[in-house]
Write a structure and sequence with these properties.
Blueprint lengths: L7 H20 L18 H14 L4 E5 L11 H5 L5 E6 L2 E7 L8 E4 L2 E2 L20 E7 L14 E6 L9 E11 L4 E14 L8 E20 L4 E2 L5 E28 L2 E29 L5 E29 L2 E27 L3 E7 L5 E3 L10 E30 L2 E25 L18 E4 L9 E3 L1 H8 L10 H6 L2 E18 L2 E22 L2 E25 L2 E12 L3 H4 L3 E4 L2 E4 L7 E13 L5 E12 L2 E5 L11 E7 L2 E14 L10 E20 L4 E7 L7 E10 L3 E10 L2 E4 L10 E3 L2 E11 L4 E8 L6 E5 L5 E6 L3 E10 L1
Parallel strand pairs: 4-7, 23-26, 27-31
Antiparallel strand pairs: 1-6, 2-3, 4-5, 6-7, 8-9, 8-43, 9-10, 10-12, 10-42, 11-12, 12-13, 13-14, 14-15, 14-16, 15-18, 16-17, 18-19, 19-22, 20-21, 22-23, 23-24, 24-25, 25-28, 26-27, 28-29, 29-32, 30-31, 32-33, 33-34, 33-35, 35-36, 36-39, 37-38, 38-41, 39-40, 40-43, 41-42
Length: 844
């Protein structure tokens, strides 16, 4: 396993990049683009795409980082999340090796927001606010921006930043434009090949007396990917009271078919120079078919690595199909009336996740203990066990868990803004005010069945052994695995039983909930330009009405839960930008933001069974943050910039998982797991970024493009809870969950008129993933550092035809979660590299 723990390489590279920036500024003859200037450029290639992004970043009133598609409506990365990770201060969480969720400046994905064309995207997952960006096909995207300092006219619902996705518009190109791509991908881990096709088209038309004043743009993408991963995990089941003894571990093999379908249809209408109207629509469907075979060993008592003892064994199957959908519809416009500008927008978004009836778990138990057994390697535990462990006749069916689940999250909003330009003693100013009304509803419906008695089918327990459900030996790259379980055989078996007799009402009702979150917002702000200064000052108000309905289960009895809360926030903000010279500007901002806890944390359901309890907390306070930013940006001709930003966040009411057992009403409980608000947390850091195309050098060096960014951050938070050892309250300091001290990107590219090459690396240091008990730091979960290396190449066979090659995860970087210390596994997973070859035809 490759581990990159040193930060010195990123520090050294950043210092070198700054020195190169100064030197290149003296050598470059490129003329800067004046702030506010507009020009039309058909962008094709890395440097042109980067240059477009920097222009947007330069003129923004916020601290903003941008990824721009090139002239063929293609991001340089196949995945939206993986494209965003190239930006300063951004890291991503991966699922099965693919980028999914975005962290900004060390703050977890649930503390940031995602908007499509200015309207919030709700999350399809039942417990989360975070939106998995891999459900959005990159072909539908014209630009991505991460806004890190919010102005008062923006929603205040992000602590790290807002990821804003802008889809393709007909006014991004002159006249008829169309492109089509086909691609084949290969995953080395599973030896599978996957197809992909995509296309986009746009054109302008003349309506009435206008000329090319009506635009239509459409995009479509389809991708089917067959892949998998190999995993071993302990779930943190270590006993550290006497050395390091492992109680149990599990080996897993995932076989996955992931299918994405996405489409967008957008309309723009500009009847005159003062009026513009638009309609943006987007649909994305993400279907995941997963089969997971697993084996597990349980030692009693726990064993150290290399020791021998008795082991109980199980073999399990989980097989499910999950479909996530996102729909977004945004209608809006703008009207200029002399010194006044009126703009408005109405948005409707719906996300859903549907998991039809599926095998949540089919469990086969070993008929007897396996003597003289153990394990070796604490990072990637592998079994030491006799051949009987691989004999299917030694395992008997214990139970089958069957589930179905549907989650839906809808958000409707209306926004209205009114601005007036005016003059103050010769200085250009603008007053702006407006409001927004949003209504959000989240539903989760789970049904569960547990099949444990098969006597109605005429079987005794001993008759249903694994040999009858054997699917053959499973390939497992981390060692020998043994027989897999046939899902179709399991379904045939329980298909002959009456489901009503096996319905698990407690599990079903405790996980059902309906949450309403209604937000009314209003703001006022003023912008003024004084010589080389621009100031923006304002205030935003957000009032929230929250309601949570669900069911609790107390020792088998059901209790209806209904929690209602109102709360209000006044959020002042001040932005300043100073133009040192025509290429250099300084930014400063003081902003305030508020983020509601996740839906899983707010869920009203609970389960109390004897002396064990687990419950959400609908009375959690929202997280509040005061944010300070100070930075400098220097722009250097074509695709060139160097920047440095300091940031500081003072966060109140951060949320953490807590065990209340032994305290208050939970005094007689052994476990009482819930969520609590911490008092305060601090986050501070430094972002450094550099990019440059060396077009002033002689050929072939004039095609070199270099980019690097590094973010160093630190956090400190305090939590408190009941300490059973002392019988009192105990506090301890922690890092904020999901916060990496160091995040860095390095990109080396080269391009000319026909060939484009890019080698990129993304580094993320280790971070705290999940807290254990207040006095159990040894079982805190951490994700180990990761370095991903990717390569891409594009070659133009003609003006309109291009062949592409991409290679991802060249170093076969695994995902490793450890318990307390990196020597002790919680989860280890390998994915293997992925290669793809494609062909793109473009007309513009």
């Amino acid at each position: 396993m490759y581990k990159c723990r040193s930060r010195a390489q990123w520090v050294g590279f950043t210092v070198s990049a700054l020195a190169m920036a100064i030197a290149s500024e003296r050598l470059s003859a490129a003329e800067p683009v004046a702030i506010g200037a507009t020009e039309h450029v058909e962008v094709v290639g890395q440097a042109a795409s980067l240059d477009q992004a920097l222009k947007q970043q330069r003129n923004s009133d916020s601290v903003e980082s941008v990824v721009h598609a090139d002239g063929v409506a293609q991001l340089l990365d196949a995945n939206v999340a993986e494209a965003v990770q190239r930006l300063p201060g951004i890291s991503i969480e991966r699922d099965q090796g693919e980028g999914r969720f975005v962290s900004v400046r060390g703050l977890g994905p649930d503390l940031n927001s995602v908007t499509i064309n200015g309207t919030l995207v709700p999350s399809p997952e039942s417990a989360r606010r975070a939106v998995a960006l891999d459900v959005l096909p990159s072909e539908l995207v014209q630009s991505l921006s991460v806004i890190k300092t919010l102005t008062p006219d923006m929603d205040a619902n992000s602590l790290g930043g807002t990821v804003d996705v802008r889809s393709l518009s007909a006014f991004d190109h002159e006249g008829l434009f169309y492109t089509g791509s086909t691609e084949a991908g290969y995953n080395k881990n599973t030896d599978q090949t996957s197809p992909k096709v995509s296309g986009a088209i746009s054109d302008r038309f003349s309506l009435g007396d206008g000329i090319d004043n009506f635009g239509v743009a459409a995009a479509l993408s389809w991708n089917k990917r067959d892949f998998g991963s190999d995993n071993v995990e302990t779930g943190g089941d270590w006993d550290f009271t006497d050395g390091a003894r492992l109680n149990s571990f599990e080996q897993r093999v995932y076989d996955i078919t992931r299918e994405r379908t996405g489409g967008g249809l957008n309309f723009d209408y500009k009847p005159d120079d003062d009026t513009s109207l638009y309609l943006r629509t987007l649909y994305s469907r993400y279907k995941d078919s997963e089969t997971r075979n697993s084996t597990s060993l349980e030692f009693d008592p726990g064993l150290a690595a290399g020791e021998r003892g008795k082991a109980k064994a199980k073999r399990k199957l989980k097989q499910r199909e999950e479909t996530q959908e996102i729909q977004s519809y945004v209608f809006g416009g703008e009207r200029m009336m002399g010194l006044w500008t009126l703009s408005g927008q109405a948005g409707y978004s719906k996300s859903s996740e549907d998991s039809p009836g599926h095998i949540a778990g089919a469990t086969f138990k070993g008929n007897s203990s396996f003597a003289d057994s153990g394990f070796y390697d604490t990072e990637k535990p592998r079994p030491i066990i006799g051949p009987g462990f691989y004999d299917p006749t030694r395992f008997t069916l214990d139970k089958v868990d069957w589930e179905e689940q549907h989650t839906q999250d809808t958000e409707k909003n209306i926004r209205l803004d009114l601005a007036r330009d005016y003059d103050v003693q010769g200085y250009a100013s603008q007053a702006k005010f407006g409001g927004k009304v949003s209504r959000r509803k989240k539903d989760n419906d789970l049904n569960a069945w547990v099949y444990e008695d098969f006597s109605d089918l005429g079987y005794s327990d001993a008759q249903l052994n694994l040999d009858q459900f054997n699917k053959g030996n499973v390939h497992y790259s981390l060692g020998q695995f043994g027989p897999g379980i046939s899902g179709s055989a399991i379904k045939d078996l329980i298909g002959g039983l009456n489901p009503g007799a096996y319905y698990d009402e407690e599990e079903s009702r405790a996980n059902d909930f309906t949450l309403h979150e209604d937000i009314n917002a209003a703001y006022v702000m003023n912008t003024v330009d004084i010589d080389d200064w621009r100031f923006i000052a304002g205030m935003r108000y957000e009032g929230t009405k929250f309601e949570a309905k669900g069911t609790g289960v107390r020792d088998g009895a059901f209790e209806a839960q209904d929690t209602r809360r109102d709360y209000h926030h006044w959020l002042p903000g001040l932005h300043a930008r100073y133009q040192l010279d025509k290429n250099t500007q300084v930014r400063a901002a003081w902003t305030n933001s508020v983020v509601r806890p996740t839906f899983g944390q707010l869920a009203p359901g609970f389960v109390i069974d004897d002396d064990v309890a687990e419950f959400g907390n609908p009375n959690l306070k929202p997280l509040e943050s005061s944010n300070f930013d100070l930075g400098i940006e220097h722009f250097m001709g074509h695709a060139g910039t160097v920047s440095a930003f300091l940031f500081y966040k003072d966060i109140k009411n951060f949320v953490y998982n807590n065990d209340l057992a032994g305290s208050g009403v939970w005094a007689d409980f052994t476990e009482a797991h819930t969520y609590a608000n911490g008092d305060s947390a601090k986050l501070y850091g430094l972002e450094l970024a550099y990019s440059q195309k060396f077009d002033w050098l002689p050929a072939p060096w004039n095609g070199v493009i270099l980019g690097a960014n590094t973010t160093f951050s630190r956090s400190k938070a305090s939590i408190e809870g009941f300490d059973a050892a002392s019988g009192g309250t105990r506090k301890r300091d922690i890092d904020l969950p999901n916060q990496s001290d160091t995040v860095g990107n390095l990109m080396l590219g080269w391009e000319d008129d026909t060939l484009s090459l890019r080698l990129s690396a993304n580094y993320k240091s280790d971070y705290l993933y999940e807290l254990a008990g207040i006095n159990d730091k040894a079982h805190d979960l951490h994700v180990d550092s990761q370095t991903f290396v990717d390569f891409s190449a594009r070659y133009s066979l003609s003006k309109n035809l291009q062949v592409t090659f991409d290679a991802q995860n060249l170093t076969d970087q695994p995902y490793f979660v450890y318990s307390g210390n990196s020597r002790f596994n919680n989860q280890y997973e390998e994915y293997g590299p992925t290669y793809s070859l494609g062909l793109t035809f473009t007309h513009f």
